[in-house]
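Two proteins follow. First one:
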Amino acid sequence: MSGLSMNRWARALCVIPALLGWSAVAQAACPVGTPGLTARVEIGQTGRSLELHRPAGADPAAPAPLLILLHGSGGTGARMLAASKLEATADRAGFILVAPDAGIPVGSGFVWNIPGVPTVTGKIPDASDPDDVAYLARVVDSLVADGCVERARVYVTGLSGGGRMASWLGCVESHRYAAIAPVVGLRAGNPKTDNPQEPDAATCQPALPVPVIAFAGDNDATNPTQGGGAGYWQYTMHAAEQRWAALNGCQTAPTTAWVTPGVYEERYAGCRGEAEVVGRMTVGGTHTWLADNDALWAFVSRYRRE
C-alpha cells in the first residue's frame, strides 16, 4: 500500500468515530472516587457533599448502575452507610453506592424534605427549605454526565424517613428511578386529610410503573406496619402495597410465601412493565435496617428505565 493510501486510511479511521457519535468524553474514565473505596465528595457543584463508594474491580471507563441510600430522620449518609453494610454488596455486584445527607438540619443529623408531610419535628417543609428532589436529580445527572453511571439503571433505597423519601421519589420522579426499595418506610402518597388511614391518591401519581420491594418488621413501634404512629405515617403498609399495585396495574392476585425462616413476602405480579410490588416482613422485626441486601439488589437490578 502506498504512503498516500495509508494516509487516506488513517484519516478514515479518525473520521469513523466522529460519524458514529463517539467522543473522547464518552470514553473517558469516571473521575469521581476510587474503586474499592468510600470517599466524601461533592457532586455537580451542589454545595453539598455525600458519601460515594465505587465498587472494587470496577472498570473506570464503563458506566455502572447506581444505588442511592437515604438515611433515616435525624441521621447522616455516613452513619447510614455503616449501618446498612451495602458497601460489601456494591463490591460483589458492581454498582456505585451514594449516601447523601438530607437538606434540613435536625440535631446532629438531617431530615428529608417531603412536600406536605411534617418531619419528625412536626414542621411541614416550606419554600425556605432545600429541595431534596432537585438535589438528588442533580447528583444523578452529574454522575451520568461524568460517565460514571448508566442512566437506565438508577435505584433508590432508604431507612425510615429515607424510605419515605424513596417512596416519594417513586411518586414524583418515576422517569429517573428504575425501582425503589424502602426499608421500614414504604408509603404511596401522603395520608388523606379527612381519612389518614388511606393514602391520598392525588399526592402520588407516577408517570410510569414503579417496581417496589419494601422491607419491614411486624414489631416496629415507630412506623407501625398496622398503621397509626406519627402524622406522616397513619395508613398500613398493606394499604401502601395495594396502592402501588394499583398504580402499576397489577392484575394477579397477591401471593404470600415464606422466603426464609421468620421472613415472609407478599407479592403482586402481572403488572405493567413487569413492575412487581413486593413486601417482605420480618416476624418480630423492629425499626432498623432489616433488609436482605442481596435480595434488595437482585430485585431492583432486574429493571431499567429506557
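Second one, unrelated to the first:
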Amino acid sequence: MQYRDITIGQLFSETVNRFPKRVVLRCLGNSITYSELDAITDAKDMEFGDAQFIEISANSKHRTAEEMAEHIVTYLAAVKSGRIAVFGKLTDELRLAISEEETPDVKNEAVLFTSGTTGKPKAVLSNHYARVNSAAAHVAALGATERDRFLLAIPLSHCFSLTANLISAITVGAMICIPDDRHTDNLLKCIERERCTIFNAVPTIFNSAVTRLETESYDVSSLRTGFIGGAAYTSDFFRKVNNDLSFSLIPGLGQTEGTAAYTFAPWTAPLNVRAETVGRVMDGIECKISERGEILIRGFCVAKVLNEHQPDTGGWLHTGDCGFIDYDGYLHCTGRLKDVIIRGGENISPAEIEETAMNAFSQIRECAVFSVPDPHFGEEICLCAAADETSLTAYELRDGLSKILVEFKVPKYIWIFGELPKTEVGKIAVGELKEEIQKLL
C-alpha cells in the first residue's frame, strides 16, 4: 500500500478534477455532481466565519435524508478549509485538549465520540493522514471503483461510516446514495431504487434487513459487497447475511480510536476466511497479542483520546478485544476483554453464550449477555434477548441452554423483549439495558 500525505480537501479536489460531472450524491430523487458539491461546500464554508471548530449534531436516531446530506456538506466544508469537524458538543475542556495536541506536522481533521454502549463516550481526535490512508485500505478491500454506489446506512458521526462510506467513495469517485431515513424498509428501497453495490452496516442493521427479506420482496441483486463491523456477530450469522443478500460480505475489526477498521479480508477472499476471521492487519500497522490475550495495535491509524488519561503504552492501542493470529496471519476475535464475567472464580465469555443462544434458537433476533452483581458468586450471568415472546419463553431458553452449556455458564437471569435498546448507529445499548435490568432484580 502506498501512503499519501494529503488532506481530505486535496483528495476531494483530485476527484473533482477527474470526475467533475459524475454524480456523488443521490438524495430524495435529486443528483449532485462532484463539481456541484465542491461549489456547495465552498459556499457553506463562507457561513463559518472565523470558527475553527464546526459542530455537527449527532443526536437523531432516525436521521432524515436532508439531515444526512447536510452533515456531508458541513463536514466537507469544514475539513476542506482546514477547520475541525466535531460530531457532537465541544466543551471548553475539549477545546483546550485539542490545542494541546496541535503540532505543525499533524493536520487534525475531526472529533468523533465513541458510542458509549457500556460507559462514558470518549472524544477522539483524528487527523487527515490517518483518515485518507485508512479509507484507501477500505477501498482496496472493497475493490471499489468509480462505478460503485455506496448506501449510507450509518450516520456520518460513526467513524465506520465516515471512513468506509464517505471518504472511500470520494477516494475513487463513486456515488453515495442516501435513504429517506434509516428505517429498514427505506434502506432496502434505496438499494432497489438506486441499484446500490456496496452496503456497509453494523450487525443489527444487517439482521433487520435479512429478516425483512424473509417476508417482503425487494430487489437487492445489485449488491456486490460491504463491510460488517461495529459489534460482535457469529460466523453462522455472517454466512446467513452473506448468502441471503447474495453478495460478498467483508469482516473487519476496528474502532473510533483506530480511525475505523484496521484489519481486512478482501471481498474476493473465500467465505470460510471471511466468516471465521476478521482478516489481516493493514499494511503499516503492527499487531500483537498481550499476555492477557488482548489485541494491541500500533501505527498511523491510532488516534488521540482527549477526555481520558492515557498512560505511556509505547504507542500501542489497547483495543479491548481478545483474539489470536493463526498460522496464515489471519486475526481471530474471540470477545471483549472487559466483558469477561467472573462467576465464583470461573472466567466466562459473554460472546460464547450469545453465540450459543443465537445458534440454538432461531426465534432470537439478537441478544446481549452481561454480568450483574451477586452477593455469593460476585457476578451472575444475565441474558437479554429480542424475540417474539409468544414463540419463546425465558424458561424454554434456559432449559435449552442448560442442555448445551456447562452448568456455571447457564444464565441465572433471562429476559425476553420485543426489542433491545440501541445506540444511534444500531448497536445494542448495553449500559441502558443494564440499568433497566437492575430495576427488575
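SUMMARY FIELD: The longest strand covers residues 317-325. DSSP finds 13 helices and 25 strands in the chain.
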